[in-house]
Please model this.
Amino acid sequence: MKGEITATNGQLLGTVLAVQANFYRVQLDTLGVDNELHSPMLLCTRRTRLKKIGQQVMVGDRVVVEEPDWLGGRGAVADVLPRRSQLDRPAIANVNQILLVFAVADPPLEPFQLSRFLIKAESTGLDVVLCLNKSDLISPQAQQEISDRLGVWGYQPLFISVQQGLNVQPIGDYLQQKITVIAGPSGVGKSSLINLLIPDANLRVGEVSGKLARGRHTTRHVELFELPSGGLLADTPGFNQPDLDCDPEELVHYFPEARARLAEGSCRFTDCLHRDEPDCVVRGDWERYEHYLEFLEQAIARQTLLNQQADPESSLKLKTKGKGENKYEPKLETKKYRRVSRRSQVQSVRNWDEESEDE
Ligand SMILES: Nc1nc2c(ncn2[C@@H]2O[C@H](COP(=O)(O)OP(=O)(O)OP(=O)(O)O)[C@@H](O)[C@H]2O)c(=O)[nH]1
Ligand SMILES: [Zn+2]
Model:
């Protein structure tokens, strides 16, 4: 990226922006201030040595390029620098943050759906920037109410209107010199925002053709777009309903408001799932506690399923695992949670469908 030194020990360094068949589109680091506007792009192969040692090259990877053919625009990836982070879906290395885009209206802002995306984003361990588009559709007062509510959740949303160009500049600032993945449900204005930030990206907005091209039946194509102000941005096509694949014990840490409670005190049991255990500091009347319980049921159902698949003979595996855990298995059957369980089942089936189609 800009400002970095191109040659370390005489090596050419660059960032992989896209992978096409067996080729890697590598943007070389800029040579200096004067050359900043035209960082060279080379289509590279992967050195046999890397293939032999099984070294994959991912979008977002920082790589050493050898044998540049400047006229032909070709080169070879000779080495991959250690990754700072690695996302699986989308498969991108060295992502710094997730830009979560929702709309305040049209489609309406649904708290549960927002929670789901937030938790998915938090589970990556990356920074999360929440941006609420279409602010032109609601009053300043309604905006304030949303802001207050999400403030209690632990987030300071940035209200924008892509259509009216409101507050888009601060987003550009957030993205500078970083690799950002943009995510959010369908129709909130992600393509519109990307088009505004990167006029060259040319994503089709709200068109059937655009939807088809980015739809779930096409192969996932991951690509990093270069922002004029520096920084790289990736879209996440077909990321409408992220599946939560975290362990039940991890889940609580993806709620900032629960993290705050755990920072101030601790539960009696170290393996507390914060449901109905005695002396629990997490359980209480905070808005998203209901969401927590529902996601917890899903996470437990998923774990049970995984355990059964791993060991079909023993469906009691979870029960016999540990002292604290043998409590939550029968709880799945209680009336209180049954309604939630059934809904979770539907959702996990739906996610399953999406997953198999995506692959
Ligand atoms: N009122 C209003 N409408 C907007 C704004 N930004 C985008 N839209 C409209 O919202 C619709 C959806 O925008 P897209 O950019 O296609 O949304 P998307 O998030 O990319 O949707 P998918 O391609 O389905 O993921 C389009 O009709 C846009 O014109 C905004 O700030 N205000
Ligand atoms: Zn607890």
